Amino acid sequence: QVQLAESGGGSVQSGGSLRLSCAASGSIISINAMGWYRQAPGKQRELVATTTSAGTIDYADFVKGRFTISRDNAKNTVSLQMNNLKVEDTAVYYCNVDVTSWRDGWRHTADYWGQGAQVTVSS
Q1: Are 90 and 40 in contact (CB under 8 A)?
Q2: Measuring CA to CA, how many Å separate 41 from each of 9, 36, 49, 55, 119?
């Protein structure tokens, strides 16, 4: 079993900063991709940023230059530093981790989602 625990988020005024963190735990063999998605009310979940085990990083155009994703492979964590936040960044942010773990004695690869963290930006 793999568990994800998100922390961070909250409320901030436009132009402010917040940081999200996500820690994976359990019978982990390796963590492949790690990323952040968000879902605003009435909208579909969308990709914010991802990072692979090889170090490749991708950002959605709407956060480039403002958000920074980072991962600590030793601690199985991924973080998202969000600067210069805008009202339109308001959403629930979810971490997503592609993990190879032990399940019943076998290697098992699957995606896991965090519980979500509310980010609210006011004008």
Answers
A1: yes
A2: 16, 17, 20, 32, 12
Annotate the chain with DSSP letters as a single string.
-EEEEEEE-EEEETT--EEEEEEEEESEEEEEEEEEEEE-TTS--EEEEEE-TT--EEE-GGGTTTEEEEEETTTTEEEEEE-S--GGG-EEEEEEEEEEEEETTEEEEEEEE---EEEEEE-
Name the amino acid, one letter, at 22: C
**Mean pLDDT per 10-residue segment, the chain (123 residues):** 94 98 94 96 96 95 97 95 98 97 91 97 97
- φ, ψ dihedrals at 62, nearest 5°: -75, -5
Alpha-carbon dihedral angle through residues 113, 89, 58, 8, given to the nearest 10 degrees: -50
What single-letter amino acid sits at 86? K
What does the pLDDT read at residue 1? Answer: 85
Residue with tokens 């006011």: 122
